[in-house]
Design a protein that fits this description.
By secondary structure, this protein is an alpha+beta fold. Helices cover 56% and strands 19% of the residues.
Length: 185
């Protein structure tokens, strides 16, 4: 008896289910079309830490600590808006991540493969210039580990986002109908 009642309620509210499913699909399609797509290049860099004068006997420990701390500083410099504002354009993005005490993964995103690769080299050159201007006594710089990087394109799947929007709309419609039925509105 309950299944018949449930199906009767669904059939009487089919218009709401279809309308909200359609709205969800349109929202998913709109989000897909408005999201960014382009080319992504990732390069791994070895950060040659600054040399310091050794006046203590535990040189290895302090050298490793200095390298770890300097890598954190380097990642924050690359991420800072002051650093990126000189060369970053509107549709471009930069992401830096510390992988190990002296390894940094630098990811650049641009509209073309060539622009993304150029942006990677510009970041490397700008960082090396910035560090040399900040600390002229130290010889810290970024050195590419993998000079031949593979770039790949990315774009969100239109079909997937439209389908997810459709399903989200249908679930929301069923939830709204259940609340409407429960509260007898």
């Amino acid at each position: 008896m309950e299944l018949k009642t449930f199906l009767k309620i669904l059939y009487s509210n089919v218009a709401y289910i279809v309308a909200l499913s359609f709205i969800g699909a349109v929202i998913g399609l709109t989000l897909t079309k408005s999201s960014q797509s382009g080319f992504k290049v990732q390069k791994i860099y070895y950060l040659q830490a600054p040399s310091t004068s050794q006046v203590y006997s535990f040189e290895n420990f302090y050298t490793q600590e200095n390298s770890r701390n300097f890598t954190d500083t380097a990642v924050e410099i690359i991420k800072s808006p002051d650093f990126t504002s000189t060369f970053l354009q509107e549709e471009e993005q930069i992401a830096a991540k510390k992988i190990a005490p002296q390894l940094i993964a630098l990811t650049t995103v641009a509209q073309s493969r060539q622009k993304a690769q150029e942006l990677t080299s510009v970041v490397e050159e700008s960082f090396n210039q910035k560090i040399s201007s900040l600390e002229s006594t130290h010889s810290a710089k970024l050195v590419a580990i993998n000079p031949n990087t593979a770039s790949f394109s990315f774009a969100p799947s239109t079909k997937l986002f439209t389908l997810l929007g459709l399903l989200s709309g249908a679930v929301f419609a069923l939830f709204a109908i259940s609340l409407k039925t429960y509260f007898k509105l």
